[in-house]
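hey so u asked for the seq, here:
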Amino acid sequence: MNVPKLPFLEKKNSTEYFLSLVLRDEKTSAVIFQEINGRINVVGEHEEQFKTSLEDSTEDELLEVLDKAVSTAEKNLPPDAESHKTIFGVKRDWIENEKIKKDYLIKLKKISDELDFKPVGFLVISEAISHLLQIEEGAPVSAILVEVGQIGLTVSLFKAGKIVETKSGPIEGSLTKTTETLLKHFSTAEILPSRIILFDGGREKLQQEFLAHKWSKDLPFLHPPQVMNLPANFDARAVLNGAATQMGFEVLEGSLAHAEKADKEPVIDALNSAVMSEEDKTLAEAAKDFGFEDTDIKKKDEAVALPDVKAVPKTAIDENLTNANISKAFGEIPEEVKINESDTRQFPSNAMSMTASIKGFLGKLHFGKLLQGAAGSRKRLLLIVVPIAIIILLLGVFIFGRSATVTLGINGKDTDKTETVTFSQSDTTDASSNTIAAKFIKVSEDGKISTSTTGKKETGDKAKGTVTIFNNSDSGITLPTGTVVKSDKDLNFLTDKPVTVASASGDVFSGTDPGKANVAVTAEKFGTNYNIPSSTKFSVDGRSSVAAKNDNAFSGGTKKDIKVVAKADQDKLLKDLQKQKEQDAKDEINKKAGGDSKVLPSFLDVSYDRKSFSKDVGDEATDISLTGTISYTGVSYRNSDLVLFAKDKLKDSDGKLEVDEKSVEVESSNLKEKGDNASAKLKIKAKLVPKFDQSEIANQIKGKSTKDAIELLNQVSEVNKVDIKVFPPLPILGDSLPFSAGKIKLVIQK
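ran it, structure tokens below
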């Protein structure tokens, strides 16, 4: 007779969640996958674009995009499930000597710290793509992979499944021309594969554009290349399949876009492991207690390396990631950025003891003897034994195996205070004397800037001609160089040289003849209006007895306005270059300040160490440039000192509220030198929140029903929201909280 299996004697599936995070230039793809007895199923995926690019994003922008991608992908996870174990998909240029470069390693460490990721390894995206193509096509790939972004291209050369060479550059002109330019810089290819694989995220008509392009004869194609376009999520699929292969898992039907079962051969060795985590060992022991052998639990570390793929250092897939394990996953980490050991998640001890108790109890029942009776007796015994066993199990879990998370939303009070603060290089932080310990950091920035000139100046040619001087006086005269000869239109001309004019001759009876002499003259100013006609009459130097006239017209006078350098142009360049280099100076000052330090937004001093203009004031020019070196002095202080300062200045008078440290902000103004120190007006802003004794609250609500606990907590005036989650939920036994305060986790939302 077949005996039905008891629920608690059935083999349990081992479920584990992982995160695959693909980091490309312009976007990231997050895939949450589930491991069920050695098989992988995708439970969530999401793609997010960077505002600029992966490389150009600020730390805050990068974290925001990654957090959004992962959070969206996690929507389908059970409430208490975790997907912190992370496999990173990275670009090829992040790798050097089969390790992640130091700068990128630090970036991944910061990402992991901030977003609570537990890195277990990495894969190179292009290598993962090659591996998946090999699986789908049944042979190693030889092709040109073109990854198309919004502003740049990356071209990789594959030969027999290996990446031979990779080049990247900005898009200049068309995509095909840019690809052609990059291919011409390849040094390792005598003959290029006649196949181009486009990886563009779904751009329309791109494949036709490449097919229609006439490739340069300088490129070593044997014949026009065939062109194919990869699906938009192929990178995420590739990294997922690579990770699955490395970990010895198979991919279930419906995962992402395809369901091909991967060959049990890895793309890279980054995820290989011969280490079973402590949790795995505990689960194995638990399985033995239920009558199963170790072989019933699928190992995750049975991958072997492909001979044609370059391997990177092996990584242990371990729940308890230590600094050593992280180093194996990411290469050697600088001492200053080491990751602290994570807490160990053990199989619950009370569940283990309960299992042993149940097993002992069942042993005492002597099932074999009890089941030897009549069929009716055996059925009655089963009807007794099964419920008893289930009740014992449920009671054990109810008393010992449950935990709860209590989330309290609390009301905060915004407050601020303005103080004149001394930033001292020699004294320690002292709120009573309005002193904050500081460090002055000086940096120099080189730069060059140009601008158009705004000055104007008249130029041209001056009209010239010859006049005849008439002297009607009875004595001769001599006119020096530069004597003014004024026309009847009030236009002034100047004599080019001295001239002597004889006196008038004759008498009253025979008449008089004035003395005459010719002299060349030049107009006083530029202009065509000085080109006067012949027979124009002139006065000479204000003398009534002297006059002049031209026999011939004057000519040669022209005028035009030209652009010259103005003093304002030089002043503008000095200000603009200073402003242009401000952000570079702030970045360098912040870098020198260190991790916990902050820098005031304004500079204590800005001055030119060197400056050189391409043109002087008054020079004819359409533009002018400035080359210079500028010194910037910033004021740095530790954030912990600011928090202590804020706690003192903003403390609650009755002691019921405290400053939320994460909310402390400052606005500064009027920063100036004060001897060897500096002073500034600071507006300190923060949020005041109620003080809570978390252990006391946990003790007050332990063992209570969720309804009673919520009512009790809602009586606290500062609390505006209460949310309680008990795991595992046991509706038939009630919804009370654990009896141990240590099983209750309190989360404060401010």
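The first helix runs from residue 59 to 73. Residues 1-13, 257-372 have pLDDT under 50 and may be disordered.
lmk if thats what u needed
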